[in-house]
Amino acid sequence: MKKVLVTGGTGLVGKALEEVIKQQQPKDEEWYFAGSKDADLKDLMATQALFDKVKPTHVIHLAAMVGGLFHNMNNNLDFLRHNLLINDHVLQTAHKHKCTKVVSCLSTCIFPDKTTYPIDETMVHNGPPHPSNYGYSYAKRLIDIQNHAYHDKYGHSFTSVIPCNIFGPHDNYQPEVSHVIPGMIYRMHKLINEDEPDKPESEKVFTVYGSGKPLRQFIYSLDLAELMIWVLRNYDSVEPIVLSVDEQQEVTIYEVAEAIAKAFDFKGKLVCDVSKADGQYKKTASNAKLRSLLPDYTFTEFDKAIKSSVEWFRSNFDQARK
Ligand code: NDP
Q: Which domain of life is it from (predicted)?
């Protein structure tokens, strides 16, 4: 019987994993989803106590200080220190507990700023990251270094996945913290339902931050959860693997706003505010390695996934993180 501990089990990806596991009902795996209330993983003793309690044989390590462009820009030191501590505590405690496998989470936004495209798994360490999120990026890059070091010294199967931008139910909608999709969903909800109550909706204007031109790949959290479970069960290399939609599925930030407007049936106008930062223009990632192993995997259609995410937000407005 495998005992799988999910750190960060209460977040966007953790909740998606829980949902997929609920559907799959695996007979030979028991899953435990831990949030920060179970243990503050910045604290080594608390991390050890969590592992002593759960006794995992496998770990999916998601817990991290996570945030969008503006949150990162203002808090690089905290992103660096908190994530370094969390990652070191989880990996070393997994080692002490003789865990068979650990799958940790990197991100496509930690890749070098100046690079050729598409980016792939071999390029993680090839140059400095974008200055906006260097704290988060260097802490994440070190997970890959640690995985190799544990493998070299002890032969451990500690590996990592590199998701592109993620969205879905249970996202973080807090304005100061949120990523682009949950940020827009909350702002559009407010514009339609709260702001300027006397104005007809058709006269309301939704502001897209920046030029709307940057390109991004977005993966639906439920798709990512399925792929991460596949990695846990079937992927046996220490080298990271990109978990992203295909390159042709890249969309502009403006197209994201259009999809969200469609899901809300918003009747007003979309306008770009070019005085706001754009961040990296693009960070197109290649999922060729994933495709070589899982050629037939079908990702949920972007508009459909956005619609489900907006519906979740509206139905769970009171308990959503905002
Ligand atoms: P969320 O912000 O939704 O969730 C973060 C999770 O980490 C929560 O369960 C939170 O617990 C937990 N956590 C945070 N700090 C601590 C701590 N000190 N001790 C214990 N637990 C802690 O993140 P996501 O689900 O979006 O991200 C999951 C992983 O995916 C992360 O490693 C992230 O870096 C990575 N990633 C995310 C992307 C995205 O677009 N969201 C893109 C690419 C990678 P609680 O809520 O209980 O406080």
A: Eukaryota
